[in-house]
Amino acid sequence: MSERPDRQERQLRQAKSAAAPAGNEHDPSIELFRKVADYASVAAILLVGAFCIFRVPYWFPSREPTFDSPSYALGFNNRVAVLSVWAVAGVLCLRSLFWRQAKPEPVDAIFSWVSKRGPVRFLGMPISVLLLFIGLDFAITLCFYYCIPHLDEYFEAANLLQMFHVSIKYHLLPFRDIAWCYGPALFYIPVAFMRCSLFLGASAEIGYLVCLMFLSGLGYWLLFWVVDCFRIKVADRIVIYSSYVIFFLEMSMGVNGVLLRFVAPYAALLWIHRWSLKLAASRSPTAAAKLCGASLLCALAVLSLSVELGIAYVVAQAAYFAHRTIFGGRFWLFGFLGTAVCMPLWWLVFPESLEMVMGVSKGGYNMPIFPAVYMLLFLGSIFWLIPKLFRVCMTRQPGDDVSLILAWAMLLMCVIPASLGRCEFGHVAHYGIGIFLTTLAVSAKWSRQFYTIYALLFFVVYCVAGRAVNVAGLADVLQPVRMTLAGRHPVPTSQPSPLIAALHLDEVTGVAGPLGLDGTTRRYLIESGKYAPQYHPDYARVGTMADLDKKIASLSKASYVLVPEGILSLKGVSDEQIQASRQAEIPQRDVQQSAWLGSLYLYPIEFKTKHLPLDPTMIEARYIVAHYRTVQRANGWVLMKPEGPEPVFTPTP
Questions:
Q1: SS3 category, 106
Q2: pTM, 2 dp
Q3: Each residue of 568-599: pLDDT tens digit?
Q4: CA 41/CA 383 separation, integer angstroms
Q5: In DSSP terms, which residues pair with 630 in a beta bridge?
Q6: What average pLDDT does the structure give for the chain?
Q7: Residue 257 in contact with residue 250, Cβ under 8 Å?
Q8: Residue-wise DSSP of 570-590
């Protein structure tokens, strides 16, 4: 009996000692220390990260010359910048997992539509919001079409319509006969619409216009559905949807810039998640086959719209089914199998699409990353959002949405290289659509004050400043629109090209325009069947020396070339003279680049050329002067033909 009080006293002391640390956790001084340490750790990571993103890439300049690449000229390596962004995001994820205390994150139920009590009914956004923006986009598109005399001479539509017209006339296929930088669906669908328009007796431009409005409307609907999947207030969803659509209102008149291309990966991921959960209810052999087929079709659908986004989607979908297989059983392995089959099947049908992606990744058309406001907002969104997403995935008993959140985070990480390649306003907002949408949705669930500030900042930076930069950059292109709105509708010329009679183009066939042609002459050559197509019809898709080699090699299919007369002055000019001339132009070019990039970034830039990029027009012009002879000259143009049966061309090693 004497031991019982001692035992009780000992237990009481143990209880007090066990309770002492818990009480100290709420000590104000300890809480303050933790907050200061928390903020200090984040600040240190971000400062080091900023140095790695904005300065370190200059230490590792790209060694492969590229064309029209300010990054190469400045010695900035975008690959190093992308790796730095991934590294900073990874360090922040590790800090979130091991440094911070465990607590619920606002992304836990960001997509959830089921609770413990059963299905939760959420009000959807009113369909009138979707119809309003579709109607506004259609009105802008029709207005542009009415104001522009020749759509095939306007901004993005110029290059695209040229390729579509040539494809219809000469039955050319993308990646095989003609260079194409986007998904094949964005080639075949417009061509199909244009063929139907011609069959019905209308112009091919009408078919292209209808196709453009169809794809734009489909993109607005798909974004509407994706935003409506976020489990936040209806008003917040309307604000998020409206903000992004305002930025995406089409002005380029190009099918390559439609919203459908950029929102498709996220819509496909949400759809495959919901569809696979329904199939998992039975887990029958039929359900397994459907799961395999659905995963394959989703991946192919996204690849058909955008090859680079499709590759990112395949990685995300593979992560989704791998996570499901680990925690959910062998049934989910069929979804992983469909995803794994996708890429070999794709490259079996479109092997050249891999060359296109690899060519872009080598630095062609890349732009250096500067700490402009829109870039800081984009990077800040990544570093705030990604750790929250991955933190939710680190559990041994994941719920139904954890696999989706993991795949979503993987998709966001995989699109960062595309966003930080040609990283001006448009490309960052287009490829970064998932990052911005998710950040807006999560912040609306996390803090009203943070959400309000972030939403206002996004609207001002992207929808106001970004749209202003877009319009300013199209000042010359929009001149016909301004003239029409001022009551002076530009009358399209009905006169034939003066080169037809002057150069006797009606008597020749197989004429190529490797250095570019005016729209009237090009239309005549295409419609009369006298045009000789090239794999690279212009320099908009020539990014590396391999691309230029292929462009010059395709001249062998042409009997004649029609080029500006000024290139004849290059005959007898040495490489040293050309190099000296280009070196002398560097100061003037640097001033122009500083002004151009400064207007795009809204950031003061002092451009200083460190590496002189190759000039593809000069290389091809010198090749033509060396291997072709003059047939006719007129109006500043010269018609030339090969010196021998076929000019000798040696590709650059």
A1: coil
A2: 0.89
A3: 988 888 888 888 888 888 899 899 989 988 88
A4: 13
A5: 640
A6: 85
A7: yes
A8: GTT--HHHHHHHHHHTHHHHH
